[in-house]
Each structure stands twice: as C-alpha cells, then as structure tokens.
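Final report, section 2: Outcomes. Of the targets proposed, Tripartite tricarboxylate transporter TctB family protein is the one most frequently requested by collaborating groups, and we therefore present its record in full.
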Amino acid sequence: MSVRKVDLHDVLFGGFLILVAAGALIATRKLSVGTAANMGPGYMPLAISLGLMAFGVFFTGRGLFRPFRGIEPVQLRPLLAIITSVAVFALLAERLGLVIAALATVIIAGFGGREHRFVESVIFAVILTGCAVLLFVRGLSLPIPVWPW
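The predicted structure is given below as tokens.
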C-alpha cells in the first residue's frame, strides 16, 4: 500500500471553495460595495466570497503539503440525531414556540454522542434555550413566539 504524497480530498475541496467564491464574485460584480460604515448591496457578498476563497486557498495549500490520512467512515447515529433535531425545530418552532422547539432540538441532538447523558442534556437545553430567548426575543426583539399560547 502506497501513501499518496498529497491529500487529494483537501485539494479538491479547496478548489471547490475557490470556484464557488469566484462564481459569487462574478455574479455580484456589478453591485456597489460601499464602505463599512455605509454598506452597499455588494458588501456582504464580497466579504463572504473573499472569506470563502481564503478557506479554499488554505485547504488547497494544506492538501498539497501533507500526505493523505484517509477519511473516517460515516457514523449513522450522530448524522440521524442532527438531521432529526433540525427537522423537529423546523416543525415545532412556529406551532409550539421557541422554548419547546429549542428544548426538543438540543435534547434530540444530544443522542448523537456516544457518552450521552440525559440529565446533562436537559440542563444544557434549559440553559441554551434561556440564552436563545434572551438573545432573539428580548435582545433583538424578533417576533418569534416563545410559547404556544
């Protein structure tokens, strides 16, 4: 078994990020950028595209200068836990409010870990839900229902 001299997965991923960033830059080239104090419609697409391109250059460079290490096989339990938690939040947020949706989301996502402890997940869910309510409802005054009533 020979070891590849470059990490082809990183090189290809970096190239993909660079292509996506270049496409976004080309698609939004006619928008006015403005300044940081007076942002135009092209300011954020430019900033995000440049950041994405920087990540692409990083991954490409890293892939060229390190040997291939392999990719771990996909683990089904964490993948299903995260997908299910996002779907539960999407289904519950509008009907039952932010508190119930966030609690359910964090608790379900916790089942993805190997050393899942239900009591710790509930405590973390309560703290995270409280922070979400304070940030989105109180701090930013977003019209998000907190409770189902």
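The chain has a mean pLDDT of 89.
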